[in-house]
Amino acid sequence: MSAPVPSAAVEPGGLAGHLDGFVRAVREAGVPVGISQAVDAAEVLTVVDLLDREQLRHGLAAVLLRRAAQRPAFDVLFDLWWPLTDRPVADAASDDPAEDGDAADGPLPVGDPGALTEAMRAELLRLLTEGDEESLRRFARLAVDTLGAGAPSPSGQSFFSYRVLRALSPDTLVAQLLAGLLGDGDRGGLAEQVARQTAKERIAAFRTAVEAEVRRRTAAEKGRDKVARNAVRPLADQVDFLRAQQSDLAELRRTVAPLARRLAAKLSARRRLGREGRLDFRRTVRASLATGGMPLVTHHRPRAVHKPELVVLCDVSGSVAGFSHFTLMLTQALREHFSGVRAFAFVDSTDEVTRFFTPGADVVDAIARIGREADVVSFDGHSDYGNALEVFAEKWPGAVGPKTSLLVLGDGRTNYRQPGLPTLADLVRRSRSAHWLNPEPRRLWGSGDSAADRYREVIPMVEVRTAAQLADFVTTL
Question: What was the pLDDT predicted at 436?
């Protein structure tokens, strides 16, 4: 197979226009790309070998990306804009599967689907054992051609990665792949661990190659921009808390510590600036006698600076599970910096959960214990903000005071029960400052059983649906 030529070289508008479209797609995927980064990307095209896709990929990634978490989205877009093909993406639909026949050692069986599948599985096993990435990508292209096609439709031919992966079942080849990697060596120990990790990585690389090839062919049929919008997963800081999957939580956890550090730094700076009180005139004049009456050093009366105190009141009902999970992780991170953080959770009743967030405790275990041990349900397990607020005010009357910042976390959906506005208003009045973080879009506040529009009349309410919005809130707090 000849070296892949960048498709932009033959597209209308040339390479510069193609790069501009790629940079725009990266920006739309949530990666902040400024003018300087776009200029650097254009400079990259003048210093790398355009026939070497991986060199081009790494060069563009180096100037456009700022965090490792942005790399998966970048790679998906790169494969769409700089596809592994000898022709432009627009002509990819005319590919002849026979062109890739050299990916296998010999001709594949024709007419017998079972024999064809077994022959391709054997070839896949051989390529996985050898570990040749280029051959594996070429085989993925052949596999999509042969096994991934769906029923033709008026809109054109469709290809599906699940058809290929279901037919070849690469995960079932692990035992044979291990045998090939280990050879006659002894099983067990470090050698087998390394072989298992290698097998896992090579199978994952094959899956990625199949998915990239399906996206390439879909882009040829439906357009690159449309595929890009559907194929790129949101970045971790843009994942909607209420729709976060289990796979998103690990990345979200990594965003918590920086947010907590930023908040801790701001509070610590305020404490440092507030340590010195009013000017102590007598001590300043006395000290100036040593410098001929010039007050080169001023003295101030000490000021009692209170420790930062924060009370977090968090809705942990099922409707906001993803949001509460994330905010409780933030609470745990803040506990690592300040002892004056108290956490309370509620559904239709309230319980203090500070005991579960001791410094060094595993946050996932703490959240699981809240579900098992915390007394947050007293009736039917449906959100009851009014009763929860009243229980909080009754059981912990001294939790909120003039030195306390109150943070309420929840969607404000009361299941048409009493919202407890007088109780909340009293808590806000007694606190040093108060904020409500709502994970629902602002346009939904007040719709259905939401009392958010009424709550916002007595407490400042902020829309916080993503980690990026939470970071903005911390910045402006």
Answer: 93
